[in-house]
Amino acid sequence: MAQKPLDILNGALNSPVLVKLKGGREFRGELQGYDVHMNLVLAKAEELKDGTEAKKMGTVIVRGDNVVYISP
Amino acid sequence: MAQKPLDILNGALNSPVLVKLKGGREFRGELQGYDVHMNLVLAKAEELKDGTEAKKMGTVIVRGDNVVYISP
Amino acid sequence: MAQKPLDILNGALNSPVLVKLKGGREFRGELQGYDVHMNLVLAKAEELKDGTEAKKMGTVIVRGDNVVYISP
Amino acid sequence: MAQKPLDILNGALNSPVLVKLKGGREFRGELQGYDVHMNLVLAKAEELKDGTEAKKMGTVIVRGDNVVYISP
Amino acid sequence: MAQKPLDILNGALNSPVLVKLKGGREFRGELQGYDVHMNLVLAKAEELKDGTEAKKMGTVIVRGDNVVYISP
Amino acid sequence: MAQKPLDILNGALNSPVLVKLKGGREFRGELQGYDVHMNLVLAKAEELKDGTEAKKMGTVIVRGDNVVYISP
Amino acid sequence: MAQKPLDILNGALNSPVLVKLKGGREFRGELQGYDVHMNLVLAKAEELKDGTEAKKMGTVIVRGDNVVYISP
């Protein structure tokens, strides 16, 4: 049976996710919310450079149109 | 008779697909879900570099606007 | 009398088409389906480089927003 | 009195038009159809390079979002 | 009192306008029509290079998403 | 209490604003109108280069999708 | 329980936020308003260069499609 992408996002709530953005930016954080545009709320977010932690950001609201993929 | 692109996607559920993204990124994985925006859920996803496996990713939710083509 | 672009696409079903994508990518294949976004299903698709065949792809679902033009 | 752009397109049906696309591509052909997205059908289309004929294409369906301008 | 941008366009009908497009292209012509997408019809259009006349184009239908600004 | 961005624009009517566009273009002028797309009408507009006045433009209709920010 | 991204924005009203835009531009300011497009109103806004303050801007209305992320 097919699983809707937003259902998978819903199942990842309160869990750590990796978010890859257009332009190469990458965040790791705890998924606290999302909406139909794939706008995301990440808590305890860290921006990564080359796969290693670059900057602790606290809470981050990512605008969905920047998202390439999300990996729970 | 015409086949709608989303019907073909539906027929590819639970099967391996190759997904080419804008900017050259490429994934191989098992198609577990999709929606009308061509947002995709891939399980056992691998990101490919030059056609060879680069990184095992587990489950990946791809935002549809990044997709160039999907090959079941 | 005007012909709607999608009617022309409909008339090309099950026939070979050339599809030019943004970024220079080019496919040749048999048009098996389409929808209002110009998402396309190509069977026996071949990706072309410099007008010559580069890679046999089987079935390919092209997301419509990548399309520059389609030539039946 | 104002003329709607699509009315002008309608008046150009079955006449030769020049179509300039984003990225510098240019077509000349007979306008056989269009829709509200400015998707176009050109018959006897020729792709131009530097204003001179480069390639005879037959019928071409241009996706409207590539269009910069159309000159009847 | 606020004036809607399309009302200003309407007031410029049959008058000369300067139209700046994304990518640096620039037209001067008589505004003969427009629609809600800012698709434009220019009559006696001239394409400008560096502010000087480069090419007489006759009637030109500009797709609105290319427009940066219009100056009546 | 939250203020809607368009309400702030409304409060800036008939006052000078600075408008920054994608691609680095910058206008200063009197805000005479706007709509929900952030299409703007500027009167007595001046295009700025490096923060200094470059060209007097009179009235300018800016298509909203070019806007980065507006500062009243 | 999931938190909608716009609810988080609402909770940040009248508080300082960091806003990262496409193209590398960055603002710090007090969030005074927003709408469903993530158009933002920032008061006492400062544009940052390399994480340090570059220019005091007063009130700024940011068009939402430029936003990469917002950090309350």
Q: What can you see in these coordinates?
A:
The structure is a homoheptamer of 72-residue chains. Chain A has 72 residues and is mostly beta strands. Chain A has a single domain (5-71), classed as Roll (SH3 type barrels). Chain A is built from one helix and five strands. The first copy, chain A, has one helix at residues 5-11; strands at 16-21, 26-34, 40-49, 52-62, 67-71. The first copy, chain A, starts with a helix and ends with a strand. Chains in contact: A-B, A-G, B-C, C-D, D-E, E-F, F-G. Chain F binds chain G through residues 1-9, 22, 38, 64-65, 67-72, and chain G through 10, 13, 21, 23, 25, 27, 32-35, 39-41, 45, 57-63, 65-66. β5 (67-71) of chain F pairs antiparallel with β4 (52-62) of chain G.
Q: Topology of this structure?
A:
The structure is a homoheptamer of 72-residue chains.
Chain A lengths: L4 H7 L4 E6 L4 E9 L5 E10 L2 E11 L4 E5 L1
Antiparallel strand pairs in A: 1-2, 1-5, 2-3, 3-4
